[in-house]
Amino acid sequence: MKKVLVIDDEAPVARLIGAALKAAGVEHTLDYCSDGAQGRTKAAHGQYDLITLDLHMPFMGGMEALKELKQSPKSASIPVVVVTAQHDPAFHQRATDLGAAAVVRKPFQTDDLATILTQVLSGDQVELPPGAEGDSDLRPLDA
Question: CATH number, domain at 33?
Fold first, then answer.
């Protein structure tokens, strides 16, 4: 059973992430919080297999939260997938430079998201699903 923390100020995103994991056959529990500060606290006290993180949130934004998650000994080894409406490649590069395992752009295709999340959970190299180039909502780590 995988334990996943979703940090996003839009609760429907948490439901979509849960649905994507379920569709991929990943048995999981899902915790949710709506800002980076709450997420940092939950990550320090829970033992998560994966964290998904939005970039633009109230109180503590995703970049600051990502930096703190990766600097904390309690959460540094947890893979983080950034799920964001931010389409600026510079933000995506900054997120990967700070330690994100992958960046997924909103809106996303549930099947494509499931592929990325299962790759990260299994420790595989993140690769775009077939046909997800061009106008895809997903970007590889080096995009």
Answer: 3.40.50.2300
